[in-house]
Amino acid sequence: xxxxxxxxxxxxxxxxxxxxxxxxxxxxxxxxxxxxxxxxxxxxxxxxxxxxxxxxxxxxxxxxxxxxxxxxxxxxxxxxxxxxxxxxxxxxxxxxxxxxxxxxxxxxxxxxxxxxxxxxxxxxxxxxxxxxxxxxxxxxxxxxxxxxxxxxxxxxxxxxxxxxxxxxxxxxxxxxxxxxxxxxxxxxxxxxxxxxxx
Length: 198
Hints:
By secondary structure, this protein is α+β, with helices and mostly antiparallel strands. It has a single domain (5-194), classed as Protein Transport Mog1p, Chain A, CATH 3.40.1000.10. Helix content is 19%, strand content 34%. Strand 9 and strand 10 form a beta hairpin.
């Protein structure tokens, strides 16, 4: 277990800030190659992380350093055309936007934003920067974003994405703007750089 994680999680639970399911985890050890969400996408963390339990989607997985309210690294490992980025609560009453075969790289920030707005019920979300940048050795995009969560905390984020063989691969990191984003973004970028497909 990451030093201090048990105590930080316990403190957050006592304060009512962290759902009890969020502390269930599996250690992702520094320097060990890990397959993401039972797919061929692998990464090698430069430090220990915790994988959170909970199924947010078929090809998704979430890691954290200090708890999901404090930092959130999410992997989208080969989202198929016609599928949303996350599991839908109700396909009829609350459908999520879908990644499609015609989705372009430049449209990925918009898809991500629409998913966050709907899935996390966020009204205040904005993409602050979009740049072309290779990801997984292919043409890709990196974008920065900012949003206000349900606790009225402003969170900053960064996502790296590519469309490979018709599937979407993306890794996003977000954390509260004050302290936690700056503290964790370089560790997240190291994981993004380590990502590989066979």
